[in-house]
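User: I'm putting together notes for a lab meeting next week and I want to include a structural view of one of the chains we've been expressing. I don't have a solved structure, so I'd like a prediction I can at least talk through. The sequence is below, exactly as it appears in our construct file.
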Amino acid sequence: MTMGAGKLRDRVRFDSRTPDQNGDPLGPFTPGFTVWANIEYLRGSEVALAQRLEKRQPVSVTVRDSTQARTINPAMRMVNTRTGEAFNVTSAVPAKDAGYRNVLAVSGGVVG
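Assistant: Thanks for the context. Below is the predicted structure for the 112-residue chain, given as structure tokens.
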């Protein structure tokens, strides 16, 4: 089954960090580019950190392949513009369907 443009019903924004005073990319996030996407929520989990449970929600996001989409990397943050939910990008690879890219991301915990 191929991905059609009509399935890209979500809007997501990819933000990158600004360099801090030392030139390291550890400053605050600055809004980047916004694209249409298809967000598919995968099976969530809970992780015990510091003796408390923390929700983790992985998502698989499909976006159209473009020059901007090829810059997506794990140092970026993805934000669902409709809900404001933020995700840590874990990987971005070409999709099975030509003309698209798959982005894996996780919400929950510290974003950034």
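A couple of points you could mention at the meeting. The domain at 8-107 is CATH 2.40.10.270 (Thrombin, subunit H). The longest strand covers residues 29-41.

User: Perfect, that's what I needed.
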